[in-house]
Amino acid sequence: MVKNVRQAMSTARGVALLRAVETTRPESERLCSDPYARSFVNPITYFAAAPFVRGGLPDRLFLAGMMTFALVREQYVHDLISREVRAGLDQIVILGAGFDTRAYRIPEIGALPVFEVDHPVTQQAKREAIAPLDPPVPGNVIFVSVDFDTDDLGERLRSSGYDEAGRTLFVWQGVTMYLTPEGVDRTLSFISRHSGVGSLVVFDYLYRSSMSAAQTLGLRFVTWAMGERTTFGIDAARIEPFLAERGFSAVHNVDGAELRRRYLTGRNAGRPMTRDGAIVSARVGRPS
Hints:
alpha/beta
């Protein structure tokens, strides 16, 4: 299990590298910004990899579109968190939190409880990376250590102060494509049965039809090299019935074309965007 967790951390560090490099762009050209991202990337790795990220090689390796998606995904979820907090939340749960830093940098969150759920090995690596930061981790962040192979997610959350009746935002980013269908169903079942009225889940996913396409070849190779495999996808036309069958409503799906329209403007208009994935949000409960 530790081996798999360390491989997952490699993927998390790769996404942190993308955020770190993006943050060095002029403010008017950034797709997202994360002043903490460099904390999770070895300095030698950063200086060696940053020219690759900025250069044209990712496009030739079918990676550039997915890299842009990962960066836009950061900002899309950032915007959704800000909007949901303003609408009224009791808590936020970040599933598979990895090296996510939104709780440390989104001002609207304030003192709202944020439960960062991940394996204890990953969380220890994160704690060590952010220990020197000033200011330190805010007091409203609760680390919930869960070994998903052996621990009960609900029990671990409840023992950490999670309120099952509370209006909750579940952020589940960069995870579903590495799970089995059973693993996806277990998580969605927990969310639908153990959160309050008006709760929301947001997650990204790959299209099943693209799982073997050339456009995702680069992504599959990179994640394979890190010890992970892309295993789960949902057909583009199936996402709404898929979630409705699992107890969700008000499904809002945002594909690559819509993400491009919203975020790839001005000097970023020419940046490539994958058509092989999307971001979806859905409310707990069936429509009345």
